[in-house]
Amino acid sequence: MISDLIFMNGYGIYVWLSFVITLGMCSAIYVKTKKTLKKYEKEFLHELRNLSEQEKRKVLQKSKILNQISTTNREVI
Amino acid sequence: MFNFLLPSRIYLLIEKTLKFINSVFFPILLIGLTFALVISPPDYIQGDSVRIMYLHVPSAWIGLACFASMAFLSILNFIFKTKNFFLINKSLAPIGLLFTCLAIITGSLWGKPTWGAFWVWDARLTSMMVLMFFYFFLILSFKFIKDQDKLVKVSSLITILGSINLPIIKFSVDWWTTLHQPASISLGKSSKIDPSMLYPLILMLLVFLLFSALIFLMKYKTEIIRIKKKRIKSL
Fold first, then answer.
1. Which residues of A touch B211 (CB under 8 A)?
2. What is the ipTM of this complex?
3. Three-class DSSP category at B47
4. Residue from A26, A34, A43 whose CB has the most chain B CBs within 10 Å, to mutate
5. Which of A22, A58, A69 minimises the CB distance to B228?
6. pLDDT in 10s for each residue of chain B, 235 residues
7. Contact by Cβ (8 Å): A15, B49
8. Distance from the CA of B99 to the CA of which of A53, A62, B206, B226 falls in 20 to 30 A?
């Protein structure tokens, strides 16, 4: 049963290679995308943290989206 | 007109959708892989090599669908000048490139045991390769053109020009004599694939679509944060 699954009547090399390449490429793009997102989130929060309390309040009041980004990352601020 | 697409309106929705996809993705992936590798039967002619179909076909569909969506959004962008369409295109391009490359690689690995060659200059294969180059040019333009207005114009032009290739890919198997088989599944017609293979194929399509949505939302979120980060100081 297991050797059938591995060798697949001689087609195993093509089938497994296809699945391994697909999983590898998908994992690589997932890791890269997540890393870039985390990097930008971190930089964004750093910019926000560097503002004075008054500036921070002003910025968050003026922009709804900035408010949402900081809310979703509240634990980091 | 497209206010519902504004980042401020959909940012929290993106967060919730990302959490939802993250929670359901792995169970669906495991079920999909079990069906594709174990439960689905081998083909009576191609044997077990047919299992590559569960990767190759959804990859090709998503590669084509991404480019078609991008071309449509580029046309809308030319008409309505909505910046959001450009951001959506920028987030879709890497997904399209990934799945187009996967369709070519898995197709090549399927071609060897079936046709006896990894590659032939067949109309379907060549037109898919042309699509891959369009994706490359597009991503290169995102990377190297710094002027935003110029970038929007160049990227829209590449996607609109590249969209001419889409019907060529679709109908290449009908217009020319090719090694590649004609479509076995088409909208509005009954499928030529047995349900024992069709359901795993649909399941793997769902897995790939969920993965695409995951990458798209993360990319889109990155783009929003990147733009807003620049604006913090100007506010």
1. 26, 30
2. 0.91
3. strand
4. A26
5. A69
6. 566 666 767 788 888 999 999 999 999 999 999 999 999 999 999 999 999 999 999 999 999 999 999 999 999 988 888 888 999 999 999 999 999 999 999 999 999 999 999 999 989 999 999 999 999 999 999 999 999 889 999 999 999 999 999 999 999 888 888 878 777 776 667 778 889 999 999 999 999 999 999 999 999 999 988 888 877 766 6
7. yes
8. B226
